Amino acid sequence: MKKQSKTSKPWSGRFTQDTDKLVEEFNASIYFDKRLFRCDIKGSIAHAKMLARVGIIKNKEADRIISGLKAIEKEIDSGKFIFTPDLEDIHMAIEKRLIEKIGSVGGKVHTGRSRNDQVALDMRLYLRDEIKEVKGLIKDLQKTLSDVAKKNLTSIMPGYTHLQRAQPILFSHHLLAYYEMLKRDYERFEDCLKRVNVMPLGAGALAGSPYPLDREFVARELGFSKPTDNSIDSVSDRDFCIEFCSAASILLMHLSRLSEEIILWSSQEFGFIELSDAFSTGSSIMPQKKNPDVPELVRGKTGRVYGNLLSLLTTMKGLPLAYNKDMQEDKEAIFDTVDTLKDCLKIFSPLLQTMTINKEKMLDAAKGGFLTATDVADYLVKKGIPFRDSHQIAGRVVAYCIKTSKGLEDLSSEEWRRFSKTFDEDIKRVISIEASVNSRKVGGGTALEGVKKRLKEIEREIKL
Q1: Which of 9, 124, 181, 424 has fewest C-beta within 10 Å?
Q2: Which of 32, 36, 39, 30 has the alpha carbon at shortest distance from 9?
Q3: pLDDT value at residue 273
Q4: Inter-residue contact 30 to 88 (CB < 8 Å)
Q5: Beta carbons of 375 and 436 less than 8 angstroms apart
Q6: Is the confidence at residue 13, as pLDDT, over 90?
């Protein structure tokens, strides 16, 4: 097989043959890890400062290195930097360019470190920044849910179990269920950040460094809580990446469930909401169609992020310590998860803000299907009848209504008393939709006063 012309690589001293072109292309990660350039430069600047601080390089050398690194950052930002597979990865690309710019002193920046601890640092810096952005986007969506709930505070809809109408609830209460899910999602990312925010540089390839490195200085310089405690663990695990993908998967599962409901609610069969034209698409063949493509895509992209999580778990499950090249596969999974998650969060707020709520259609649906049958049973319980007996009586009332094509509200006092002498005139107030909703005053219930109280609490939470 024809070999490529000889090129110098930082590790080429031990080798007598050039890298095959196919291997070079297969081995390279530069085409996707180039997005780490800012993190890589930031880490290298902190490392150079530390090397000068402990006397490994001179202050003037550190200044030249730092100046060169900043110039390279501008080159990449402006699009002038050319990335090629012979550079392998972002670390070697930047180092090679640094040597080209400032001479052999540029080679000193790699003193006391390995690409193994360097890439672990870059991934932690990258995820730390992304987690902060994701947390902000979650807060934005929580605020949107809260705002839509406030605007539709008293709207009543059917609550469902098994996708069957179950009990009447406030639409605002239903939306705030997703606020609570997002609150836990926010906490998961916040917790993940604690484990991301430790500094691995100084671990070297796996065994640490023989140089008197000041790891605490680098950790402070880069804003980490502390350096890592075990050099082998520092370079050989990606559990913090897996944890991020796990938190992202759970968050997208919540968004997918909300997407599913929006898709159902916007159908003609439900008609509870109408999505804005700006957030819908049409059909290429059916002129009447208005498709909920945005929530459908969020629902679809959820599976994509699940795949990234499974990919990372599978990649890491059989690796002996310490670093293995398999771990290069973490980046595309992480980058895709970050991009997909942020895209879904960004589009969801305006989707919700611009949809129209059909309050009358929701209320009509809540009035059908005997949704206050449980209130009938509860009424009897309050009159002293055991719940199991009350349940049976209420069930027979419903069966009678179905047989006679009546609603609970259509029954006369005489008809109610056929099933139990305990029923009185006040049963008609109990079975109203509004009374049912507002009777559920238990903490966390759907009663209007409870939802109002929770919205005030949420206002304070969002500001934190």
Answers
A1: 424
A2: 30
A3: 97
A4: yes
A5: yes
A6: no
What is the amino acid identity at position 349? Answer: S
What SS3 string covers 88-100? CCHHHHHHHHHHH
- Overall residue count recorded for the chain in this entry: 464
Please tell me what DSSP assigns to residue 199. E
DSSP-derived letter for residue 17 is S
Q: How many helices (H) and strands (E) does the chain have?
A: 19, 6
Q: Which of 12, 67, 276, 283 is catalytic?
A: 283
Q: Is 283 a catalytic residue?
A: yes
Strand bridging mode 198-199 / 356-357: unpaired
Kind plus residue range of the DSSP H or E element containing 166: strand 164-170
Token pair belonging to 357: 């709520």
Catalytic pick among 78, 162, 284, 405: 162
Euclidean distance between CA atoms 95 and 87, whole angstroms: 10
User: By three-state DSSP, how is residue 68 classified?
Assistant: helix
Q: With cut-offs at 50, 70 and 90, classify the pLDDT of residue 85.
A: confident
Q: Is position 162 annotated as part of the catalytic site? A: yes
